[in-house]
Amino acid sequence: MGASDGRRGHLFRLDCRIARNATRAALAGRRDRLNAGFMLVVVLAALHAWFAGRSWQIGAWAALGGGACAGVAAGRLIAARLHFHGTDGLLAALALRPSTGRHYRLAAHGIGVAILATITLIARPSLLIVSLPAYLAGAAVAHLTAMLAPSGAVFAKVRLGWTIRIWLHRPGAGMTAAAAVLLSLVVTGTLSSNARIAIVGIEAVIATLALTSVDHPTVRFMTVAGQGSWRIVAHHGRSMLPFVLLAVPITWLILGPLAAGIVAAACGAMLLLMTMRILAYRLHGRRFADLLVSVFAGMLILTAYMLPPALPVAALAILWHLHRRAAAKTWLLG
């Protein structure tokens, strides 16, 4: 029985070693560790300040949403890792055992619950009764979704995803998105100007988020093939130029400079996010890079909220830091 329990833990210990090694590689330099520690302290302090200035009901809704999103994200990540181990991993035979999967999920979610509990205790301890059940509910939804997903549709889904991603990086996609914005302005002509501006803002965020999608394997291939950072950025952002050139003047003419400014701000924010993701993808694996970009994005949002004049300086500092490290990765396979 003891030997069986020990073997069930092999898979989780393997991923723990991988995560530790990835963290050590990402924070190899003393400056990198200091920057990471400083960013963590700033983010946690900002979270504490934000929750302290809000009523319990507002904080509870935020904790509910954050806990549920964390549970879904953790559940999807765990399902993806188990799928990898069961198909391409070194311990595939062990990963296919139901007992191993259960042990892996319990251990991984235990770490997720511990991290969320620590963050909640720092932000506002009374919200533990909201955030932890929300996490468990989100994790259950992710687990059920993974169980009910039809396995026969995997290849068709992958092929369709590749086709959509390729098309989204073409100039025609930007023209189509701008035409959709124009059509919505015509259809919503009877609404108030504030409602139309809100609709255009939401559409701009959704459109630019789609047009600035980044594919990790493509970035890695272009990096080892000798492509520079800004050439990769230009490749992924080709569809944004026609969208900006069409959508911003259209919204200016129909709704005025405020709506045009919102569209332009959405375009700038998503281009900045895309650039950070590309630079991070040149340095790290996809999951760690996404986590790093999420931290940087949170810092920029907090800077915009607390000290707006410092936002351009903070954005340039982050881009310079990532670009300086990413430049050394060109032509390298590691």
Write the layout of secondary structure elements.
Elements: H1 2-8, H2 10-26, H3 30-52, H4 56-87, H5 92-95, H6 98-123, H7 128-148, H8 154-168, H9 171-187, H10 193-211, H11 216-224, H12 229-236, H13 240-255, H14 257-281, H15 286-306, H16 311-326
**What Rg is obtained from the alpha carbons, in whole angstroms?**
22 Å
Uncertain residue segments: 151-156
Helix content: over 70%
Following the backbone from N to C, one meets helices and strands in this order, namely HHHHHHHHHHHHHHHH
Shape: globular
| Biggest sheet overview | none
Number of strands: 0
> How many domains make up the 3D coordinates?
2
**Treating each run of at least 4 consecutive H or I residues as one helix, how many helices?**
16
Averaged pLDDT: 82
Structural class: mainly alpha
Spatial gap, N to C terminus: 41 Å
Strand content: under 5%
